[in-house]
Amino acid sequence: MQRQIQVYNSLTRQKEVFTPLHEGFIGMYVCGPTVYSDVHLGNCRTFVSFDVIYRYLQFIGYKVRYVRNITDVGHLLDDGEDRMSKGAKQNNLEPMEVAQKYTVGFHDMMRIFNTLPPNIEPRATGHIIEQIEMVQAILNNGYAYIANGSVYFDTLKFAEKTGEYGRLSGRVIDELLAESRDNLKNQDEKRHPSDFAIWMKASEEHLMKWNSPWSVGFPGWHLECSAMSTKYLGEHFDIHGGGNDLKFPHHENEIAQNMGSCGCQPATYWLHTNMLLMNGKKMSKSDGNTISPVELFTGDSPHVTKGYSPMVVRFFFLQSHYRSTNDLTDEALQAAEKGFKRLMEAGKILTSTVIDTAGEGPLDKDILEAMEGAFADMDDDFNTPRALSRLFELVPIINSIKDQKISKDQISKTAWDTLQEKWFHLLFDVFGLMEDTASAANGPVDGLMQLIIELRQQARDNKDWPTSDKIRDTLQELEIVIKDGKEETSWTFK
Amino acid sequence: MQRQIQVYNSLTRQKEVFTPLHEGFIGMYVCGPTVYSDVHLGNCRTFVSFDVIYRYLQFIGYKVRYVRNITDVGHLLDDGEDRMSKGAKQNNLEPMEVAQKYTVGFHDMMRIFNTLPPNIEPRATGHIIEQIEMVQAILNNGYAYIANGSVYFDTLKFAEKTGEYGRLSGRVIDELLAESRDNLKNQDEKRHPSDFAIWMKASEEHLMKWNSPWSVGFPGWHLECSAMSTKYLGEHFDIHGGGNDLKFPHHENEIAQNMGSCGCQPATYWLHTNMLLMNGKKMSKSDGNTISPVELFTGDSPHVTKGYSPMVVRFFFLQSHYRSTNDLTDEALQAAEKGFKRLMEAGKILTSTVIDTAGEGPLDKDILEAMEGAFADMDDDFNTPRALSRLFELVPIINSIKDQKISKDQISKTAWDTLQEKWFHLLFDVFGLMEDTASAANGPVDGLMQLIIELRQQARDNKDWPTSDKIRDTLQELEIVIKDGKEETSWTFK
Lengths: 494, 494
Description:
The structure is a homodimer. The first copy, chain A, contains 16 helices and 15 strands. By secondary structure, the first copy, chain A, is an alpha/beta fold.
């Protein structure tokens, strides 16, 4: 029997007790990246959020089948061009070369952020047959029509018959019908502006296309998720996740397609992550208010004063609840770096300190309650910031044990050992944090550099120029730069 | 204009001057892994070999499209069971979960061996439509027949009409026809024992199946490579590679399928890697004469006395020509480790030593000839062991420059700089070797420690005890130990 958890369901707009369809098992589908460019930092936040949810569900004992797709066809831009084809043309590559390049890059980034790979990672181009079969089923059920070789989903008919269209996004069909026809491709083929293509006839020059009963063409973007979630998780599964921006039209249309083909809502619970902001505003390339993951790690951006390690960024993400916006600022990252280090240091004290107190200690209750509270926070719609704050409450106690400000007989062996075990479960297994590889590798480097910075200062104070020159020359060879700040001296690699 | 290279073509059984179909461009297809278990060390050798070929072709200026597939359906075992389905049943997983697990593991291992990802990595399940279309084309051309919902390639008819079947593997059709029918599944459906399924009707309980004009079923294993190489490289492309064990029946059948559908040989040049042996014998799980990559890295195997780093293993692979067997023994690995370090050390001397000699030096000619010879060796069917031996010839000269046994005026600046540049091109860009990660992480540590050892000596000489105490204390905290030897002072981690 698993712990009882509650999740906020976007479909019902309320927190609900989570009840899986099959006891002990969870099917979870999360919309993955469109691999036509480097993954955005905002997407990384979404995937990290679902990684923590996946980890926690497994941690509390569920067998989870986590499916996250790769969109490598059909995701059209506003100008009606396929994102993959556009990427291919720009780089003078075959679309699948573009897909491969950015899939490899995406996997690299996910590994850098220490996210677990999903259990199945289906590709849209790998499921054309399944998508064609779903189009056929929707046609057979009367919720789609053919126009000039393309097939469109009939939203008005679907809304009238089921009353369902717009439920997830909160848009009403009248509003959708009233929407301008501007910027709609093939507008003449559609019966209503809110209708959407589930199969598109391809033009001569279109690169990615397949035979179908209607035309040589390609599936509409929304279709792949309906077809692949059904194939790998069944017509009805537990959790469907994605970024908030996918609610409409992508997820709304997914629901319409699933209901239109098999008559049932695909997922019991819809979970959506909120936006990553920067300096209080939406990230946007055109405004320059943007930063890539790599720029964030290296510090090579006007928006940050230095680089932050992937684990610090992951920690920063977790400091906001997945349903809240998360505002990335240099100050917040500096604070996250300090906080992350503080927790990691406390973890080291937990590992290296042995407490032998038999029986009970007067602090046991506080410690165990705080720790249990952190797990209760996770049960409550995966509230990572609140769980983290419980850990921070424990840090002064842990530090006081080290500094001997609290005597070891205040805590029992049992409580201390339990604290240690749960601390690492939560931090490493559930939050997916780990020692910074850079700091692990540079661990001794930083220590040695602190020593060298001191010896350099000493040499300067003593006007011992040969020594300070020697230090300068050696660091130059090693491509290490010392920065003398107002308050402190720091170092970085060139 | 690229350098002229020669490759040994398995199809013609001779070395041939390499002429690409389109000047400056190369299409290369290599058979990838079947992702139903961890990748074997022997496969790693094959993929490292083709990685070096891919790197070299790019290095000499070709734009290469390197396609390596992932087999995730249809690869049948001797007992007629699909490898993926068997893996899925054994692990109680959906076949695509098995595919994902071992695809991730395969990619991890390829990264550990520092192989470059291919440009396109198509999956068999992702190309069912293309395979069905190819079956249809073969049927249309009269080279296949339908039996009970399955489709078989008619080898006898193909051999009679084209005279081609058996050319690659050197088997003659009479021999194939005479082969026993034992162990042949659906033998009653086949007209000749050498015929092979290109589409298999699936049983009720079969897990991976798709609709087709003939039955709900799945493609034969050989078909995927024909379909995917054609899709991404065209009906005729430059290089097809794979392990020797794939020559028959896999590659023979691929050729038959390609010729049977479009009438032309798929590849101009067929390249095959030879076997990785262990202690002189074929690796075999049942004999216990086997070692996994991970066991080799950790040393956790009775066959090795210690672990060897991935770069040492890669170097060991390159010490044999890809067309020769490669005999893995503990002694050979120890020798490879020494050889690898020797080359890496020589590289460091090349980087850190500046030679200013103007004009020409008496050693220039020898140096440049050896280096040019190494590239000529690579032009000659990618002869990595001979190219490596040229580098080893240069090591004594490089070491003698360091030890000042050879005066710097024996070599001109131009020759030295050229040597340095080409050395790193060959070792890093072409051979894909890199500093062992463990030693790389300590790179700056060693430099800093040399500085600290000097400053410590200086403090001692000056009887500056506070400074030397501070150094001692800091190093103790960092778990670094300084050893004062007779001749020099060294350091290690505790």
